[in-house]
Amino acid sequence: MKKKLLYWIILIPVFAGCSGNQQEESTDTALPTDTTATAPADTDVSTPAFTAENGQHTITNERYGFTFSVPEQYQVQDKSNNGDGYFIVTGDAGTDLRIYGTFIGDNPVAAELELASCEKTEKFRFGNGYPGILCFQDGDRYYYYDTPSTRITFYVHASEAWVSRNAEIMQTIASSIWAGNN
Predict the structure, then answer these.
(1) SS3 breakdown of the chain: % helix, strand, coil, rounded to 5?
(2) What is the pLDDT of residues 46-80, one digit of tens each?
């Protein structure tokens, strides 16, 4: 008798638990899913304020105090979480152009270590005459504009064919960068 009672004590909660899960599952599947409420990931991007000048967009980054220009056919998107820079959308899926700032005043060693990783460097003059460095690393290009407290980087990741076709545009974007009172 005790065995039968123990048997029912164990089986009743098990059956009750199983039927409860089935009911929840059928309720969940009956709910409609609204797929229109979810926007694509790339639409959650703010486009920075800019001024149009001579067929170019001019963008100013308040956090790092730099300004640059891009051809008006390119889009500039602020996808950063901390306001450090921008993606430049060229329309070529294999091309990644970015301009961003970092604080180097407290850690000049980190800035030097970054330069040490370059396979080749060249001196570069920005449009305002300020001296910079062009770093070549793993097929990518980094244009460095260093002030005593910040480093502004124009990063170019693109195929050699794209770089050849767009050398003048890259030069124009890089030359347009200026920071602070420089």
Answers:
(1) 35, 35, 30
(2) 344 445 566 788 999 999 999 999 999 999 999 88
- Whether 15 and 82 map to the same domain: the answer is no
What does the alpha-carbon distance between residue 11 and residue 2 come to, in Å, rounded to a whole number?
14
**Number of neighbours of residue 46 by Cβ within 10 angstroms:** 8
The answer to whether the predicted template modeling score (pTM) of the entire model surpasses 0.85 is: no
Average pLDDT, the chain: 77
Q: Which amino acid is at 58?
A: T
58 lies in a domain?
yes
Looking at the fold, whether 147 and 117 belong to one and the same domain comes out as yes
Residue 14: its H or E element: helix 2-30
Asked whether the beta carbons of 58 and 83 are under 8 A apart, the reply is no
The answer to whether the beta carbons of residues 117 and 137 sit under 8 Å apart is yes
Task: Looking at the structure, tell me whether residues 24 and 82 fall in a common domain.
Answer: no
Overall residue count recorded for the chain in this entry: 182
Structure tokens at 53: 């000048």
- SS3 label, residue 94: coil
In a domain, 42, yes or no: no
Domain encompassing residue 11: 2-29
